[in-house]
Protein backbone atom coordinates (compact mmCIF):
# COMPACT_ATOMS: atom_id res chain seq x y z
CA UNK A 1 0.00 0.00 0.00
CA UNK A 2 1.39 3.40 -1.02
CA UNK A 3 1.63 6.50 1.16
CA UNK A 4 -1.44 8.07 -0.48
CA UNK A 5 -3.65 5.10 0.40
CA UNK A 6 -2.25 4.98 3.93
CA UNK A 7 -3.07 8.63 4.57
CA UNK A 8 -6.54 8.26 3.08
CA UNK A 9 -7.27 5.47 5.57
CA UNK A 10 -5.66 7.34 8.48
CA UNK A 11 -7.21 10.75 7.73
CA UNK A 12 -10.28 10.41 9.97
CA UNK A 13 -8.25 9.66 13.10
CA UNK A 14 -5.14 11.69 12.23
CA UNK A 15 -6.03 14.72 14.34
CA UNK A 16 -6.98 12.56 17.33
CA UNK A 17 -3.67 10.70 17.04
CA UNK A 18 -1.67 13.95 17.35
CA UNK A 19 -4.14 15.86 19.54
CA UNK A 20 -2.10 16.22 22.71
CA UNK A 21 1.11 17.25 20.97
CA UNK A 22 -0.78 19.65 18.71
CA UNK A 23 -2.34 21.53 21.61
CA UNK A 24 0.71 21.66 23.86
CA UNK A 25 3.58 22.01 21.38
CA UNK A 26 2.88 22.16 17.64
CA UNK A 27 0.44 25.07 17.89
CA UNK A 28 3.30 27.27 19.16
CA UNK A 29 5.47 26.22 16.23
CA UNK A 30 2.72 27.07 13.75
CA UNK A 31 2.28 30.52 15.29
CA UNK A 32 6.01 31.16 14.95
CA UNK A 33 6.02 30.02 11.32
CA UNK A 34 3.15 32.34 10.39
CA UNK A 35 4.98 35.29 11.94
CA UNK A 36 7.77 34.76 9.39
CA UNK A 37 5.52 35.05 6.31
CA UNK A 38 5.79 38.13 4.08
CA UNK A 39 2.84 40.52 4.23
CA UNK A 40 0.11 40.10 1.63
CA UNK A 41 1.75 37.02 0.15
CA UNK A 42 0.41 34.44 -2.24
CA UNK A 43 1.34 31.23 -0.43
CA UNK A 44 1.63 27.60 -1.40
CA UNK A 45 1.24 25.18 1.48
CA UNK A 46 2.69 21.81 0.51
CA UNK A 47 0.98 18.91 2.26
CA UNK A 48 -1.81 20.89 3.89
CA UNK A 49 -3.12 17.62 5.34
CA UNK A 50 -6.13 18.09 7.63
CA UNK A 51 -5.59 21.85 7.61
CA UNK A 52 -3.97 22.34 10.99
CA UNK A 53 -2.26 25.55 9.83
CA UNK A 54 -5.50 27.14 8.60
CA UNK A 55 -6.48 29.00 11.82
CA UNK A 56 -3.00 30.51 12.14
CA UNK A 57 -2.72 32.29 8.79
CA UNK A 58 -2.62 36.12 8.92
CA UNK A 59 -5.57 38.01 7.41
CA UNK A 60 -3.84 39.50 4.36
CA UNK A 61 -2.70 36.33 2.56
CA UNK A 62 -3.97 34.13 -0.25
CA UNK A 63 -3.29 30.40 0.22
CA UNK A 64 -3.32 27.42 -2.09
CA UNK A 65 -3.02 24.19 -0.13
CA UNK A 66 -2.09 20.96 -1.87
CA UNK A 67 -2.12 17.37 -0.67
CA UNK A 68 -1.93 14.00 -2.40
CA UNK A 69 -4.62 12.54 -0.12
CA UNK A 70 -8.28 13.36 -0.88
CA UNK A 71 -9.15 11.98 2.55
CA UNK A 72 -6.93 14.56 4.26
CA UNK A 73 -8.30 17.37 2.07
CA UNK A 74 -11.84 16.39 3.00
CA UNK A 75 -11.01 17.02 6.66
CA UNK A 76 -9.16 20.26 5.84
CA UNK A 77 -12.20 21.73 4.08
CA UNK A 78 -14.10 21.53 7.36
CA UNK A 79 -11.67 24.09 8.80
CA UNK A 80 -12.33 26.72 6.13
CA UNK A 81 -14.41 28.84 8.51
CA UNK A 82 -11.31 29.31 10.68
CA UNK A 83 -9.35 30.89 7.81
CA UNK A 84 -8.84 34.66 8.26
CA UNK A 85 -7.05 35.37 4.99
CA UNK A 86 -8.29 36.61 1.62
CA UNK A 87 -8.71 33.29 -0.15
CA UNK A 88 -8.09 29.61 0.50
CA UNK A 89 -8.03 26.99 -2.26
CA UNK A 90 -7.50 23.23 -1.95
CA UNK A 91 -6.02 21.10 -4.72
CA UNK A 92 -5.24 17.40 -4.85
CA UNK A 93 -1.67 17.33 -6.09
CA UNK A 94 1.61 15.47 -5.63
CA UNK A 95 4.39 17.64 -4.20
CA UNK A 96 6.86 15.84 -6.45
CA UNK A 97 4.99 16.83 -9.64
CA UNK A 98 3.21 20.16 -9.31
CA UNK A 99 1.16 21.64 -12.14
CA UNK A 100 1.95 25.27 -11.27
CA UNK A 101 4.03 27.49 -13.53
CA UNK A 102 7.53 28.55 -12.53
CA UNK A 103 7.82 31.57 -10.20
CA UNK A 104 4.17 31.55 -9.11
CA UNK A 105 4.26 32.04 -5.33
CA UNK A 106 5.63 34.68 -2.96
CA UNK A 107 6.12 32.05 -0.26
CA UNK A 108 6.09 28.27 0.08
CA UNK A 109 5.63 26.49 3.40
CA UNK A 110 5.51 22.94 4.70
CA UNK A 111 4.94 21.57 8.19
CA UNK A 112 6.07 18.01 8.91
CA UNK A 113 5.79 16.99 5.25
CA UNK A 114 9.22 16.19 3.83
CA UNK A 115 9.60 13.31 6.26
CA UNK A 116 6.95 11.54 4.15
CA UNK A 117 7.41 12.69 0.52
CA UNK A 118 8.87 9.57 -1.19
CA UNK A 119 11.51 11.58 -3.09
CA UNK A 120 12.10 14.60 -0.83
CA UNK A 121 14.74 16.26 -3.00
CA UNK A 122 12.45 16.11 -6.03
CA UNK A 123 9.65 17.64 -3.95
CA UNK A 124 11.93 20.38 -2.62
CA UNK A 125 13.16 21.19 -6.13
CA UNK A 126 9.54 21.55 -7.19
CA UNK A 127 8.98 23.92 -4.25
CA UNK A 128 11.92 26.00 -5.43
CA UNK A 129 10.70 25.97 -9.05
CA UNK A 130 7.25 27.41 -8.24
CA UNK A 131 8.66 30.02 -5.83
CA UNK A 132 9.37 33.51 -7.17
CA UNK A 133 12.92 34.86 -7.21
CA UNK A 134 13.41 36.49 -3.82
CA UNK A 135 10.52 34.48 -2.38
CA UNK A 136 10.57 32.81 1.03
CA UNK A 137 10.39 29.08 1.70
CA UNK A 138 9.73 28.05 5.30
CA UNK A 139 10.05 24.42 6.27
CA UNK A 140 8.99 23.18 9.73
CA UNK A 141 10.19 19.59 9.85
CA UNK A 142 11.34 16.81 12.15
CA UNK A 143 14.52 14.96 11.20
CA UNK A 144 17.52 12.98 12.23
CA UNK A 145 19.48 14.50 15.09
CA UNK A 146 23.19 15.25 15.27
CA UNK A 147 23.11 13.50 18.64
CA UNK A 148 23.74 9.75 18.29
CA UNK A 149 21.91 8.97 21.54
CA UNK A 150 18.73 10.70 20.32
CA UNK A 151 19.02 8.90 17.00
CA UNK A 152 18.80 5.51 18.72
CA UNK A 153 15.28 6.43 19.82
CA UNK A 154 14.42 7.90 16.41
CA UNK A 155 15.46 4.73 14.60
CA UNK A 156 13.28 2.69 16.96
CA UNK A 157 10.30 4.96 16.25
CA UNK A 158 11.06 4.72 12.52
CA UNK A 159 10.42 0.98 12.66
CA UNK A 160 6.77 1.84 13.38
CA UNK A 161 6.17 5.06 11.43
CA UNK A 162 7.80 4.02 8.17
CA UNK A 163 5.57 1.01 7.41
CA UNK A 164 2.48 2.60 9.01
CA UNK A 165 2.49 5.95 7.15
CA UNK A 166 5.62 6.05 5.05
CA UNK A 167 6.98 8.67 7.47
CA UNK A 168 10.69 8.65 8.23
CA UNK A 169 11.97 9.97 11.56
CA UNK A 170 15.60 9.80 10.46
CA UNK A 171 15.86 11.82 7.24
CA UNK A 172 18.57 14.46 6.94
CA UNK A 173 16.13 17.15 5.83
CA UNK A 174 18.60 20.01 6.20
CA UNK A 175 20.92 18.34 3.72
CA UNK A 176 18.00 17.70 1.38
CA UNK A 177 16.98 21.38 1.47
CA UNK A 178 20.52 22.40 0.54
CA UNK A 179 20.75 19.77 -2.21
CA UNK A 180 17.54 21.16 -3.71
CA UNK A 181 19.29 24.50 -4.18
CA UNK A 182 17.87 26.59 -1.34
CA UNK A 183 19.95 28.99 0.72
CA UNK A 184 19.14 28.69 4.41
CA UNK A 185 19.00 32.14 6.00
CA UNK A 186 17.85 31.06 9.44
CA UNK A 187 17.70 27.73 11.24
CA UNK A 188 15.65 27.55 14.43
CA UNK A 189 15.86 24.53 16.73
CA UNK A 190 12.51 23.95 18.42
CA UNK A 191 12.80 20.51 20.03
CA UNK A 192 16.50 19.91 20.51
CA UNK A 193 17.61 19.59 16.86
CA UNK A 194 14.93 17.01 16.00
CA UNK A 195 12.30 19.63 15.12
CA UNK A 196 13.70 22.59 13.20
CA UNK A 197 12.42 25.50 11.17
CA UNK A 198 14.37 26.55 8.09
CA UNK A 199 13.78 29.95 6.53
CA UNK A 200 15.14 30.07 3.00
CA UNK A 201 15.24 32.48 0.08
CA UNK A 202 15.26 31.66 -3.62
CA UNK A 203 18.15 33.62 -5.07
CA UNK A 204 18.06 32.23 -8.60
SSE layout and pairing:
Layout: H1 3-17, H2 19-35, E1 42-46, E2 62-67, H3 70-77, E3 87-92, E4 105-111, H4 120-130, E5 131-142, H5 148-165, H6 173-179, E6 183-191, E7 195-201
Parallel strand pairs: 1-2, 1-4, 2-3, 4-5
Antiparallel strand pairs: 5-7, 6-7
Helix pairs in contact: 1-3
GO molecular function: S-adenosylmethionine-dependent methyltransferase activity
Pfam families: Methyltransf_11
Keywords: Methyltransferase, Transferase
Summarize this entry quickly.
The chain has 204 residues and is of the alpha/beta class. The chain has helices spanning 3-17, 19-35, 70-77, 120-130, 148-165, 173-179, and strands spanning 42-46, 62-67, 87-92, 105-111, 131-142, 183-191, 195-201. This is Methyltransferase type 11.
